[in-house]
Amino acid sequence: MRKKKNIGLPPGSIIYTGKLTGDPVQVNYIEYNLETFREDDNTDGKGVILHASNPTITQWYDVRGLHEENLIQSISERFQMHPIAIEDAVDVFQRPTFTEYTNGLFFSLKVLRFDAEKSEVKKESLAIYFGDGFVLSFQELVDDTFSEVRKRITFDRGRIRGKRADYLAYALIDYTVDQYYHVIDQLESKVEDLEETISLDPDLVNKNEIYNLKKQILKIRKSVSPIREAINLFSRSESKLIDKSTINYIRDVYDHTIHIVDNIDSLRDILSGLYDLYLSELSMKMNRTMQFLTIITSIFVPISFLAGLYGMNFEYIPELGYKYGYFILLTAMVLIAIVMLFIFKKKNWL
Question: Which of 180, 175, 85 shows the shortest CA–CA distance to 130?
Fold first, then answer.
């Protein structure tokens, strides 16, 4: 990762800070209003056509992949993006934020996915820049994150076709935030399975599993907490680019982020308690083992005493001359063991 490559460069430098891949950049273009719809899908990022503005339609350029810096430059110049917004769009380590510029509004956040096989949360950078009649979305990876949103537009489901660019920007943010619920649900399922396993047999659990889940929850919280602040700023914006009717929808997303952060905190507390439960179960199992060994030792203490007493090398021990002395001693030892087992059982030590 080229995490620090833009250090020392002038503000507004377009430097992609993510991991380089061999995948070509893809650009999907959609224009729409209530009556019309058109889509162009450029799968290699070459020969991308930047269409002329039209006040009667909304244009959406979905850029998947940020490593073609020249392509990013041409798109940003076409829509007069602020240099700082361009720099932040290609910086995958950019903290989620909302910023108002003269020609548009910029919103950056993280797309989260959960890899159940590796029990790992995957994080992807996402930036959205929108203005009068256009929306630009910049995805770090070439995966089609917004396929469901695109279907809504294509088949005229929901309100997007009848709204302005600000509503599309809201829809993209709302869809991204909704995916956090799926990630948290999968983590909760992992935690529940882990809790059940600990209760049945703590030896089957590796403490690194608990540590890894806590690490993943912390990763989610670090991504979601700043988004809550950014959406709050978005909902309070007085920009003319945001329709008043959209503000209520944005506030709804803000409520979702608060709920998600609360769920994350609850899950983190549960995991902390789960680790305590894990240590407690191990301690109880060790105590049960020690209890069993103590009982065995307690039974053999009087038996060993008798064996040692009559095993001493004195010339004269009266009992040694008895004809049935051995059998009497053996019977006494068995009776002592039975009586002690009965006492332990009565006291619920067995």
Answer: 85
> Whole-angstrom Cα distance, residue 321 to residue 223?
86
Residues composing the chain: 350
Q: Which pTM does this prediction carry?
A: 0.79
Find the farthest-apart pair of alpha carbons in the chain and give their distance in angstroms, rounded: 120
Pick the CATH number of 26-280 from 3.30.1490.110, 3.30.460.20, 3.40.1080.10, 3.50.50.60: 3.30.460.20
What is the side-by-side order of every strand in the sheet holding 134-139?
37-42, 26-32, 58-64, 134-139, 120-131, 105-115, 97-100
Tell me how far apart the alpha carbons of residues 24 and 115 are, in angstroms, rounded to a whole number: 24
Contacts of 164 (CB under 8 A, 6+ apart): 58, 133, 243, 246
Q: Using an 8 Å Cβ cutoff, are 50 and 41 in contact?
A: no
Q: What is the pLDDT of residues 208-220, one digit of tens each?
A: 888 888 899 999 9
Q: Can you name the residues that pair with 109 across neighbouring β-strands?
A: 126
Helix 244-309 and helix 207-236, axial crossing angle in degrees, nearest 10: 160
Q: What angle do CA 67, 121, 225 make, to 5 degrees?
A: 90
Q: Six-digit token pair at 72?
A: 């990013």
Phi, psi of 109, rounded to the nearest 5 degrees: -155, -175
Query: For residue 256, is pLDDT > 60?
Result: yes
Instruction: Report residue 1's pLDDT band, with 50, 70 and 90 as the boundaries.
Output: very low
